[in-house]
Amino acid sequence: MSQTVDRALSILPLLAEGPADLGQVADRLGVHKSTALRLLRTLHEHGLVYRQSDQRYRLGARLFALAQEAMENLDVREIAHPHLVRLNESCGHTVHLAVYEENEVLYIDKVESRYPVRMYSRIGKPVAITVAAVAKLLLADLPEHERRGIAEKLDYPMYTSRSTPNAGAFLRELEKVREQGWATDLGGHEESINCVAAPIRGADGRVVAAMSVSAPNVVVTADELLTLLPQVRRTADAISGEYSGRTPVKGTV
User: Fold this and answer.
1) Helices (H), the chain
2) Cα–Cα distance between 185 and 49 in angstroms, integer?
3) CA neighbours closer than 13 Å in the CB half-sphere of residue 103
4) DSSP state of 130
């Protein structure tokens, strides 16, 4: 039975390459045409493959509907939380998870620092979009015309002398973040607070969320915080793998 399931599932990536006829499927699986036909008929009955008028088979609409439903029901916060906790236990600093929704970047999870000096932030609160590291990652992943449209509509409050001053500077920063794959906020929102962040990606490679580690200067310097970047990126990659279904669940730090 397991061999039959394995063979049936092997048909799907073949058809993802494009329509194939019975002979091509049988050859790829290394089975007789009658065996391939039984497998294709079963997949067809469940809507996972479709038989075209030219007698070739392609992936069925039901497969795409299932994939879409599964993606809509994925909760990135639920998947990410254990990883965020482990990272917090390892480094001791505040860890955030954020998403971009309806023109705002919102924190959807937070694990508090173990140090007495803590950040004032809360779940559900919008971030300072022009300076926050998580916001830079989420906006940097958007198509260029969307990035530009958003940048030109934003206000640019000078929270500190290191805040992003205007749309041009913001777009240049987003391009830099897009190229390097991580972001920082080194005193851009609060002089005494630094932050490093990494993206969480879905199965299609798009950024679905961003996570960050933040700490005040009295606890660690900006340079010391930056040494945590590899650890932050490993955590984000582990969350991405689990969220997209590419890797099994395992520890990340």
Assistant:
1) 2-16, 22-29, 33-45, 61-73, 76-91, 133-140, 144-153, 167-180, 222-226, 229-244
2) 48
3) 8
4) T
> Residues 6 or more apart from 190 whose CB is under 8 A from it?
159, 160
CA 52 to each of CA 36, 42, 56: distance values in angstroms, whole numbers, following the listed order: 16, 16, 5
Helix/strand/coil for 52 = coil
Spatial CA neighbour of 119 closest among 209, 212, 198, 230: 212
What's the CA gap between 157 and 241, in Å, rounded? 36
For residue 52, what are its two tokens? 């075209």
Query: Within a 13 Å sphere around the CA of 245, how many CA atoms are in the beta-carbon half?
Result: 7
Span 83-102, pLDDT tens digits: 999 999 999 999 999 999 87
* pLDDT, tens digit, 9 for 90 and up, residues 200-216: 998 889 999 999 999 99
Residue 68 identity: Q
pTM assigned to the model: 0.71
In the chain, the amino acid numbered 14 is L
Burial pattern 136-164, b for ≥16 Cβ within 10 A else e, equals bbbbbbbeeeebeebbeeeebeebeeebb
